[in-house]
Specification:
alpha/beta; 228 residues; 16% strand; 45% helix
């Protein structure tokens, strides 16, 4: 049953995605506001399609911890592709900080650029951090408010440990914007690098903001305790 559901899902996903982005391919001609609408429509559709076909639902706790105004960094653990869709649905217009390889995806690259996504080379830590700080500073001036980062740097299995990248602390300290920690268990259902997905409810827990912490090790320690 899981295999059949997954097959049907991927048929709808790939055909729908290709048709959608071909239809709206002249992204450079669109306004930023319209591109945000299109991106949110697509990510929301994927999340809902996952629920209807795969039987993957979600439950959110801690919504009251999301700031009503001002900039903040969403710092989430990373277990599957599901959360990349989910945060686009939950935080329309958010700016993702992602690995450099993803910007080469032809069908998405124009949208990534229009939305202001930031790409880093994981093997060039210092240069990547400089790019991130410069980009975040520019985007804040352009009134971009929400930044999504996966401090573990890669997808991990639910029971796997990964070192926290200090880049999230650098953004927090340099720009004085709070960190909104998020923990989820998507890897238990949207199993990474597996065709067949499992039905179930993904738990998304949003924790209170980390504010004005000047100690890098303390921030990393807080995130590790929340994630693991």
């Amino acid at each position: 049953m899981n295999f059949l559901r997954s097959l049907i899902f991927y048929i709808f996903f790939y055909i729908g995605t290709i048709c959608f982005f071909i239809t709206f391919s002249p992204v450079k001609l669109f306004s930023y506001k319209f591109v945000v609408f299109l991106a949110n429509f697509w990510t929301t559709s994927v999340v809902k399609l996952s629920k209807v076909i795969l039987g993957i639902d979600f439950n959110i706790s801690g919504l009251e911890n999301i700031p009503k105004k001002g900039s903040f960094i969403v710092a989430s653990n990373h277990q599957s592709a599901w959360e990349t869709f989910f945060f686009g649905y939950l935080f329309p217009g958010s700016v993702y900080i992602l690995k450099d390889e993803l910007k080469r995806i032809p069908i998405f690259s124009g949208y990534f650029e229009k939305l202001g996504f930031i790409f880093v080379k994981r093997d060039k830590t210092f240069d990547s951090l400089r790019v991130v700080l410069k980009s975040v500073g520019r985007l804040i001036k352009e009134k971009k408010k929400i930044f999504v980062i996966f401090p573990q740097g890669t997808r991990l299995k639910p029971d796997e440990y990964g070192k926290i990248n200090p880049g999230v602390f650098a953004i927090h300290k340099f720009f004085k914007i709070p960190i909104l920690p998020v923990k989820l268990d998507s890897g238990s259902y949207w199993v990474n690098k597996r065709f067949s997905k499992k039905s179930g409810t993904i738990n998304v827990k949003i924790f209170p903001l980390i504010k004005k912490v000047s100690d890098k090790e303390k921030v990393i320690s807080i995130l590790e305790k929340l994630y693991y």
